[in-house]
User: Fold this.
Amino acid sequence: MKPKPKPPCAPLVPPRAAQVVPMSAVPMYSQIREIIRHRILDGTYPSHALMPSESQMTVAFGVSRITIRQALNDLQKEGMIFKVPGKGTFVSKPKAFQNLSNLRGFGEAMTSLGYETVSQVLSQRPVRVDELVARRLQLEQGSMAFQIQRLRYLNREPISVDVSYFPLELGQRLAQEDLQARDVFAILENDYELNLTHADVQIDAITVDEWLAGHLRTAEGAPLLRIERLTYANEQPIDFEYLYYRGDAFQYRLRIERK
Assistant:
């Protein structure tokens, strides 16, 4: 069920002349669709914002109502907007996805799709690891590792909490980096010259506890996607993570070949 939107003032649409090219080979509805898509992805139209009416858009873009409807219908099919009868068209909460066939960091994957991403570091500290983390990182049981917890935002909406464990020295180096704006994978490869080769991934569904609910702005007990990911540099495990994604805002995709 769609959450009940709280309609703010409708965003204004810039004049047509600066945006749409009438004589272009690209159909007008496609141009308008991409303009609106860009405004959604860059946060100009935030989640649950009331979209300008069809009448406002026909005036602003200088096109027919049919053209506007074609653009909006495409965006609705993609799940980027939704309509409430009698109230108007609203921006959907962003739903991100990553392709399981590629090993990419969250920011790396989302930025390539046009999303705005940022991270908030919740904590970074040495910890004594439990048996599971020690086994994953090939450490002695009871050894120290470095834990970094981050809250990840997509278009200014909290989407995941990442709890990452690194070998102690590597984690201490990472703690000195700008983890709000940069992906850990990019730092490991570009700054530390580590060759990230592959990752082991496990996915299951859990419910949100009080701590996660507070960070993700969701109800306690709501569905959550939990991902365990162990990333290797060559054959050495260097990054073990628990990635907790909002169940209503994220999905993994995978193409499977029949052989």
